[in-house]
Write a structure and sequence with these properties.
alpha/beta; 37% helix
């Protein structure tokens, strides 16, 4: 299951994470975000225990979205040891996301 990441818990859940983190930046009104949502949910199930899969609602969490320079959604960031190591913008195939995630495991 995906973890809800907010402006308040970002530091704890992402920066201090002991596992790689994949974060989906999305919004309710975004069509491509709704397309990729089920894919992210599937990945969360498959990588349970190996990685943290989180979602950030950009409308409810403008601070962290602005701080990380998120200009387009969906944007998916891949974080390892508190550092952004890769990213993906737009509705992309599941294989592209899992290969990026596998690369940082």
């Amino acid at each position: 299951m995906e973890v809800e990441i907010t402006d308040q818990n970002f530091e704890e859940l992402v920066k201090k994470a002991d596992k790689p983190v994949m974060i989906d930046f999305w919004a309710e009104w975004c069509g491509p975000c709704r397309m990729i949502g089920p894919v992210v949910e599937e990945i969360a199930g498959e990588y349970d225990g190996k990685a943290i899969i989180g979602k950030v609602d950009v409308d409810k969490n403008p601070e962290i979205s602005a701080q990380l320079g998120i200009r387009n959604i969906p944007t998916i960031l891949f974080v390892k040891n508190g550092e952004i190591v890769d990213k993906s913008v737009g509705a992309v195939p599941k294989a592209q996301l899992t290969s990026k995630l596998d690369a940082i495991l």
